[in-house]
Every structure is written in structure tokens, then in C-alpha cells.
Design brief:
Layout lengths: L3 H21 L8 H7 L1 H17 L5 H13 L2 E2 L4 E2 L4 E3 L5 E2 L4 E2 L4 E3 L3 E3 L11 E2 L4 E2 L4 E3 L3 E2 L4 E2 L4 E2 L8 E3 L4 E3 L19 H24 L24
Parallel strand pairs: 1-4, 2-5, 3-6, 4-7, 5-8, 6-9, 7-10, 8-11, 9-12, 10-13, 12-14
Antiparallel strand pairs: 14-15
């Protein structure tokens, strides 16, 4: 039943959520935990969910959904009471975040505003994503269906992910597909969406290089000089400093 042990667990989880906010939001590092609890909608939504989930697990009728609904109206974050959420989740600027009934979230996960962990179809059973530990999901990203996002992965802003994501990958695009950041594991919670790989530009650049090679071979064979090919420029600077480094 909902007793002292459950209350202790919820209190411990709240402390971890507050610590996560202080560690991952630069704006929260200079303010106290009480102020974070009173002013951060993502933390408030998580507290409401922790209580609603505990009541749901204990078979209490109506009240879990009532608490979840009040939390949604107050914070703009909708979390189904049955969703399984691990320790130290941080929902930054939480407005518009939706976490479905069968969603599972690991430890130390970061979600930004507008993220949806949604279902597909009307079948019962597992129909929402599983997000493993240490994952970062960017603003507006949609993770749909019973997919699994591997540990340490990073989902770019506004990506639409409908397939499993390998661990330690970066996912961009619609539909989302995994890429690598300079061949190395993506960095920890840095919100550096400005320096994600651009697979479309990379593909166009590869095609342009191939066309240039073919034109060179044609010129050597026919003796006719080809017209200069258009330069493929990157859509953004993929080097430079990290804008989220503080």
C-alpha cells in the first residue's frame, strides 16, 4: 500500500530530480532547490507523476489520473501515471512534453520542450518508446511506437524517430536515422544542436565530388574541358566552439 516506504522513495526521487536540474540547466546553478521546485514546471510535473505513479502501482482508482491531469494543466507536461520513469530525469522548459502510458525512461535522461514519447495505432500492449539511460532528446523531437533508444544516444531537435536507435548514436532528420559526431560518442548533456552532422549535405557533397571525378575522366578522354561545377557549401558551421559550454 501507499505508505512510509513509498513516501520515502518519492522524496528520494524528488531530490534526484532537483539535483539533475541544478547540474544540467546553467540557469539553475545559482538558485536554491526550493526556488527550483516552486518555479520549474518540469520538476513540478515530475513530482506530480512520482505521486500519481505510486498511487497507480498500488491500484488506487481515479486519483492517479486526476493528479496527472492537474499536473498537465499546471505545467503543460502530460505524463501518463503508468509510465515508468527512472532517476534524475530533467525536463527543461517542459511545455508540450508528452509521455505515453507504456513509455519507459531510464536514469539521467534529459528531455527538452515539445518532446513526444508517443504511440502508434490502437493496439494494446507495449506501444510507446523505451529510452535508456543517459539519453538526450532535443526540442520538438517525436519518438513514436515501441522503439528503443540506446544508452548514451542523442536525438536532434525536431527529429521524428520511428526505428530503434543504437547506443551512443546521434539521430537527426525525418524520419530520424543514426549518424556519428566525428566518429566519436556524442557528448554529455550539452544541448549543442548547432553542431550535429548534416547527412543530406554530406550526401550532396559526395555526389558533387563524384560528378567532378567523372567530368575529369571525360575531359581526359575527349579533350573537352568541362564547365566548373557548383560548390556544395555546408548549411552551417560544423566546427567552432560549443555554444552550450557556458
Amino acid at each position: 500500500m501507499f505508505g512510509l516506504g513509498t513516501l520515502t522513495r518519492v522524496t528520494r526521487e524528488l531530490r534526484q530530480d532537483l539535483t539533475a536540474a541544478q547540474e544540467r540547466d546553467p540557469a539553475a546553478r545559482g538558485i536554491g532547490r526550493a526556488e527550483i521546485l516552486l518555479t520549474y514546471g518540469g520538476v513540478q510535473a515530475l513530482l506530480a507523476h512520482r505521486v500519481a505513479h505510486a498511487l497507480h502501482d498500488n491500484g488506487v482508482p481515479l486519483l492517479p489520473h486526476a493528479i496527472a491531469n492537474v499536473g498537465k494543466m499546471a505545467t503543460g507536461v502530460e505524463i501518463h501515471p503508468a509510465a515508468e520513469i527512472g532517476e534524475a530525469l530533467f525536463i527543461d522548459h517542459g511545455a508540450g512534453v508528452v509521455i505515453g502510458e507504456t513509455a519507459e525512461i531510464g536514469h539521467n535522461v534529459t528531455l527538452y520542450q515539445g518532446v513526444t514519447l508517443g504511440g502508434t495505432g490502437f493496439a494494446r500492449g507495449k506501444r510507446h518508446p523505451t529510452v535508456e539511460s543517459d539519453v538526450i532528446v532535443g526540442s520538438g523531437a517525436k519518438l513514436l511506437g515501441p522503439i528503443r533508444v540506446g544508452q548514451g544516444s542523442k536525438v536532434g531537435a525536431n527529429s521524428v524517430v520511428i526505428h530503434d536507435v543504437p547506443p551512443n548514436s546521434t539521430v537527426v532528420g525525418n524520419p530520424g536515422h543514426p549518424v556519428r559526431v566525428e566518429g566519436k560518442r556524442p557528448g554529455g548533456p550539452d544541448a549543442d544542436w548547432a553542431h550535429l552532422p548534416d547527412p543530406v549535405a554530406d550526401a550532396i557533397r559526395a555526389l558533387s565530388n563524384r560528378v567532378a571525378e567523372l567530368e575529369k575522366l571525360l575531359a581526359e578522354t575527349t579533350g573537352r574541358k568541362p564547365e566548373p561545377s557548383a560548390e556544395v557549401r555546408p548549411l552551417r558551421n560544423v566546427r567552432g566552439s560549443d555554444p552550450a559550454a557556458g
